[in-house]
Amino acid sequence: MLDPAAPQLVVNSRTLYFSWLPADPDAVAALVPPGLCPRPDRQVFLNQYIVDDETQTSGFGAYSLTYLGVSLVGVDAPGGLNPGGWWSHYVASSRRVREYAAARGAPVLAGRTRIEVRGEDLLSETEIDGTTVIQARCRVGQTGHVISSGHHRYFTRRDGQLLSSVYPFIAEPVAPFEIESVEFLQPGHPLYALRPANPLTIGFGYYAPRSSFAYPGGLTVHPVAAPEPLRPVHQVPANLARSGLPSGS
C-alpha cells in the first residue's frame, strides 16, 4: 500500500471535467457535511480521467477514475478562480489508488471509466459492478496553444474530521468544446442524486488529452465552528402556570 502521506504526480492523463445544475438541489445539499456550505445553485462537478500507462505516474500505475461532488462557497482554491469542492463519490479502477485515496478520506468505489474520441465525437462512461452508471457525450476539437493551469481544492472526511487538500494542475484543453448530454442511467444507485436538471445547464468544462496534476503530500484539518451553547430556558413556576397568570407579574 502506498503511504497516504506521500505526494503523487500524474502527467498527461486524458481528462473530461465539467459541472452542471442538478435536478434535485435538496438531495445534493444533503450530501454536504456540517462545516461546509454548498453553492446556492447546488452546482455538481464531475471529473472522468484515464491514465493509460504506468510511466505517467509516480506510483499509482495505470488506472481510470471518476470523481463527483458538490461545489462549495467560502473555501476557494488558491487564486480564488476555482471553488472548493466536497468529494461525494470516488470511483477508481485501481486497488492501489483506492487504498491510497481511502486513507485520505475519499469515499471510494471500485469501477472503471472509459473515454473514446472518434473524430469530433467524445463518449465517456463510468461503470460500477459491470453496469454503466454515467454517460456523457461531447463535441471536441483539437488542442492548440492555450494552457489552463491553477489549483483545485477538495474536501474529504476521516476520523470525524474534515480534511482539505490543494491540487495543482496543468491542462491542454481542446477547442471547440461542447457537452451535448449527461445521463445517469441507474435510478437505484446513490449517484443518481447528482443527476443534472432538464434542460441541461453547464457551469464550466473542458476536455484535455493531456492533463497533469499532483496529489499533495499533506492534508490540512479544516476547522469547524463549534455550535453556539443553548440559552437557558426560563422556567415558569408550576403554580403560576396552572393559574394562568403571566410569569413576570
Largest beta-sheet characterization: 7 strands, mixed, barrel
Side-by-side strand order of the widest sheet: 1-2-3-4-9-10-12
**Structural class by sheet pairing and helices:** mainly beta
Oligomer: single chain
Count of helix runs: 3
Radius of gyration: 22 Å
Count the strands? 13
Strand content: over 45%
* Share in helix: under 10%
* Overall pLDDT metric: 91
Envelope shape: globular
Order of helices and strands: EHEEEHEEEEEEEEEH
Keywords summarizing the entry:
249 residues, mainly beta, 7-stranded mixed barrel, 4-stranded antiparallel β-sheet, 8% helix, 48% strand, disordered C terminus
Structure notes:
This protein is mainly beta and 249 residues long. The protein has three helices and 13 strands, in the order βαβββαβββββββββα. It has helices spanning 25-29, 95-103, 238-243; strands at 8-20, 44-51, 63-71, 85-92, 108-110, 112-118, 121-128, 131-143, 148-158, 161-172, 174-184, 202-215, 220-221. The strands form two sheets. Strands 1-2-3-4-9-10-12 form a seven-stranded mixed β-barrel. A hairpin with a 2-residue loop joins β9 and β10. The longest helix is centred in the middle third of the chain and has 9 residues, at 95-103.
